Amino acid sequence: xxxxxxxxxxxxxxxSDGVKLIAVSKTQTTEAILEAYSAGQRVFGENHVxxxxxxxxxxxxxxxxxMIGHLQSNKVKYIAPFVNLIHGVDxxxxxxxxxxxxxxxxxxxxxLLQVYxxxxxxxxxxxxDEIIELLxxxxxxxxxxxxxxxxxxxxxxxxxxxxxxxxxxxxxxxFDGLKVSFFRKDDHFKALSTxxxxxxxxxxxxxxxxxRIGSAIFGKRITxxxxxxxxxx
Length: 233
Hints:
Layout: H1 3-15, E1 20-24, H2 30-38, E2 43-46, H3 49-58, E3 64-67, H4 76-79, E4 85-89, H5 92-104, E5 109-114, H6 128-136, H7 138-142, E6 146-152, H8 161-182, E7 191-196, H9 200-205, E8 210-213, H10 215-218
Parallel strand pairs: 1-2, 1-8, 2-3, 3-4, 4-5, 5-6, 6-7, 7-8
C-alpha cells in the first residue's frame, strides 16, 4: 500500500479515539513526507536535530514538528525557533536550556517529561520521585518560557502484552496524580505520549493521547539523504 493508504488506515483507527497520530519521519526523504502531507498529515516526529532542522527548512511551514528523540542540551538552540513539542525532557538541566532558548526566541515551548517505565537499562527517563522533585523545585517555578503539557514514555520492548499494559496503566495513574497535585488549574496538561507501531493499541486502551508510528506508515526506513547527527544519540 502507498503512504497515503497507510495513513488513511491509521488515522481512521487512531483519531476515532481522539488520539493524535505522530508520523515518525526520521530518515525518510522530503518526498515521502510530502506524500504524507498531501494525504492530510501535519504532525511529524524526528529523532535527530540536524535532520529536523533541514526538513523544516525544506517543507511546508504549517507542519507541526515534534522532537521525539533523546535531546542534548547543546542542540536545543537549533530547534527552539520552530519546534512544536519536545517529548523527551529527562532532566532539569535540559528544561533550563529549553527555557533559555525559548526566551531568546520570544516563545513558550511545550514539553513532555519523559518517565522511565521500562524494565530495561537502555531507556531514558525520570523516575516518579524525580519528576515530583523537579515540579516542586524553585528552579522550575522560575521558568517562564516552557510549558509542561504532559508525559511521555516508552514501554519495555517485549511481546508480553500484559507487562506493557501494566506499564502504561501505572503511567496513567501517575499522570492523573500529577494532574491533581500540580496542574489542577492547567487545561494544557493533558498529553500522554505513549505507544508505537508495536504497542499503540495497548497504549490507547491505557489512556494514550498521542501515538508515534513510523515504518508502518512510510515503509522501511531509508538510510540516506541526511547526514548523521550526534545531537540525539
